[in-house]
User: What shape does this take?
Amino acid sequence: MPLKSDLSINAEKFHPNAVSNQTQEVNEDLMKMFDKGPKWYEVSDSTSTVLNDQFESSENSFFGH
Assistant: This one.
């Protein structure tokens, strides 16, 4: 007898049409912001930490930290 999972996933929530316009705009803005800087594999971990700290303290901080 198969086990019933406690996890259920509604596949409709993952369809592109289910994403709101606001979410699409935020996603596009995030992609543009991250395209400006170096890729994660192009810098050392210490440089990445410095860049992250600079980003979080800048006016570009998306989450307002």
Notes: The two ends are 50 Å apart (CA to CA). The chain has two helices and no strands.
